[in-house]
Amino acid sequence: MVPAFRSWRLAVAVVASLACGGGGGGGGSPTAPTPPGPGSPSTSASVAMGGGLDSYGYEVNAFAPSTVIIARNGTVTWSNPTGRMHNVTFSTAGAPANIADHGSGTNARTFATAGTFGFQCTNHSSMTGSVTVQ
Q1: Domain containing 86 — which CATH number?
Q2: In the prediction, which pLDDT does 12 show?
Q3: What is the pLDDT of residues 80-126, one digit of tens each?
Q4: Half-sphere exposure of residue 124, counting CA atoms within 13 Å on the CB side?
Q5: C-alpha span between 9 and 14 (Å, rounded)
């Protein structure tokens, strides 16, 4: 009696497989869609100098965001709304010109070469960041 039971289970499994699309006629389990890949990098980015106030009301010396990704020939604009003296000094060869000390305003730089370009404010050692150009 056991062999007949096994044959019956096998027959049911084969029929179920064919009914679910095993014969190429559709049906089957749906396939999960492929998630979209990352988009092209932006041609521009903005970085604020000064990260707001800490819990004691003192200005945080930071770039916000500290890292940005842009396309080749893209432009990054640094803005300083703080009234404090900040600068942008690049530490990587091939970067555009540094941005001198200034207490307010905006300055933009265009990056023609792919790579990662580190920068810092030499007035505040905690202010560091990078621009990745793809």
Answers
A1: 2.60.40.420
A2: 43
A3: 998 899 999 999 999 999 999 999 999 999 999 999 999 999 999 98
A4: 19
A5: 9
In the predicted model, is pLDDT for residue 79 greater than 60?
Answer: yes
Tell whether pTM > 0.85: no
- The burial of 119, by beta-carbon neighbours within 10 Å (0-12 exposed, 13-18 middle, 19 or more buried), is given as buried
Tokens representing residue 134 in the block: 């793809």
Domain that holds residue 94: 42-133
Q: Indicate the number of domains in the chain.
A: 1
Within a domain: 25: no
Who's near 84: CB < 8 A, 6+ residues apart? 50, 59, 61, 103
Q: How far apart are CA 94 and CA 48, in angstroms?
A: 23
